[in-house]
Write a structure and sequence with these properties.
Keywords: Cytoplasm, Cytoskeleton, Repeat, TPR repeat. The protein is built from nine helices and no strands. It is mainly α.
């Protein structure tokens, strides 16, 4: 009951097992997976992995569209749990704070989360960071390629030097 590692591994095993059985099982048991991850984060707030996994869980739940939720409720007879991009960002940024610039998928997911929240400049920061890290495996190379693609879509949100160095009232206000 009071072991962060037990809760973390329960979440991993349950999610993997239920994902292999069926989509219905994965949706049905996802609140239990979430609860295990939350408990793992509470018991050990310094565990990077639990923070990342909970952030990823929140991101994935936030990605479900209204129609996907209706279909899941109709066919699976249970509504998928809800989350928000802000909640995902909170856990993912905590993971990044615990182990800065070490896990490329976390940085990439932070960039995607910022895009979904409409924070394009912050998204460019994380995606640029991901692109400039050295990949250690194929998964990280894939994240870099996806980050490059997303960055190309964000090119219109370019910060110029004039935005960084402005007069007292940069938006046309006067004394």
């Amino acid at each position: 009951e009071n072991s962060a590692n037990v809760h973390k591994w329960m979440a991993i095993i349950m999610d993997t097992r239920n994902g292999l059985v069926s989509l219905e099982n994965r949706v049905k048991y996802s609140p239990i997976v979430r609860d295990h991850l939350i408990r793992a984060c509470e018991l050990n707030p310094q565990d990077f992995t639990s923070q990342y996994m909970l952030g990823r869980w929140c991101f994935e739940m936030s990605q479900l569209s209204w129609i996907q939720r209706v279909i899941a409720k109709y066919f699976i007879a249970t509504e998928p749990p809800k989350s928000s991009y802000e909640e995902a960002y909170r856990y993912l940024s905590k993971a990044e704070e615990l182990q800065p610039r070490t896990f490329l998928p976390n940085i990439y997911l932070l960039g995607k989360t910022c895009i979904e929240m409409g924070q394009f400049y912050k998204a460019k920061y994380y995606l640029n960071l991901a692109v400039n890290l050295r990949p250690r495996d194929e998964c990280e190379r894939c994240c870099i390629n996806k980050a490059k693609y997303l960055m190309s879509k964000l090119d219109r949100y370019d910060l110029g030097k004039n935005v960084l160095f402005y007069d007292t009232y940069p938006f046309g206000f006067s004394d």
